[in-house]
Amino acid sequence: MTEDIHVEALENVLTEPAAAFKHDYLEIRDLKVVFDGFVAVDGVDLTVTSGDLRFLIGPNGAGKTTLVDAVTGLAPAAGSVRFGGVELLGRSSHRIARSGVGRTFQTASVFEELTVLQNLDIAAGAGRKLRTLLRRRTSVPTEVEAALETIGLGKVAHLPAGVLAHGQKQWLEIGMLLVQNAHVLLLDEPVAGMSQAEREQTGLLLQRIGQQRTVVVVEHDMEFMRTYASSVTVMHQGKVLAEGSVSEVTEDERVIEVYLGSRSHGRGTAVIENGETK
Ligand SMILES: Nc1ncnc2c1ncn2[C@@H]1O[C@H](COP(=O)(O)OP(=O)(O)OP(=O)(O)O)[C@@H](O)[C@H]1O
């Protein structure tokens, strides 16, 4: 009987590639970032598995972006950041990106004069010559085609990225991470400045991507967080203040006191009525 169960589990892993990624998780231990004596990230432990759409929230200056910078090699840090068992701290940002860890910034950083397709092609084509990348293609590589479909920009593939709507630029950036084969995506305020319709599309996109990849979303939009997060980590003054499901953290008195009860979280107001956080 026991043997039968093991065989079945093994078959599931072999036939379902997504299952294999479950073992690739982001593991942050005792992360510390100090700027000229100021401790911006102070001994953070964080574990995020694939299939878990994790939101990282907290007041301004809590250390959220600095944590993402440290994980992606843009801020000097002490401690440990491992993905798939590989230590990332101490590696250059390029090597970290090649290890499958990608991020977006608060302001989209796509090549505005190049088409959507060219942007994706460049992201996918590390190692190819620039002239080859810019040449109009007769066929679209499979991974680029798949990313175009996932981010829903197939119809505008040949338009310059500069003419895209704000939301579409963010989706293009996410697509660029997908074609780079990023298995960990760290997204810094992806829905800032988006319309309600764009927010909804972004939420659904993140849920789709999050099924097979490890996604961490830094956000101030609490309405967006409530709708799409599968788990939440709250940072305050460089430390993890609370962690759990959306209801666990939104009902946590400490979180209400330092963040949700205040107005320091931008859009998606968290008004407290009858002791309930809305
Ligand atoms: N390069 C730097 N040099 C010095 N201090 C910095 C640097 N980068 C960030 N800080 C400080 O570290 C603290 C954490 O900043 P960080 O941007 O990580 O916060 P945050 O939680 O992302 O805030 P926000 O929600 O406003 O983006 C802040 O006090 C900030 O001023």
From TrEMBL:
GO terms for molecular function: ATP binding; ATP hydrolysis activity. Keywords: ATP-binding, Nucleotide-binding, Transport. It holds the Pfam family BCA_ABC_TP_C. The keyword ATP-binding applies. Residues 26-262 form the ABC transporter domain. The keyword Protease does not apply. It comes from the Bacteria. GO terms for cellular component: plasma membrane. InterPro entries: AAA+_ATPase, ABC_AA/LPS_Transport, ABC_transporter-like_ATP-bd, ABC_transptr_urea_ATP-bd_UrtD, BCA_ABC_TP_C, P-loop_NTPase. This is Urea ABC transporter ATP-binding protein UrtD. It comes from Kineosporia babensis. The lineage of its organism: Bacteria, Bacillati, Actinomycetota, Actinomycetes, Kineosporiales.
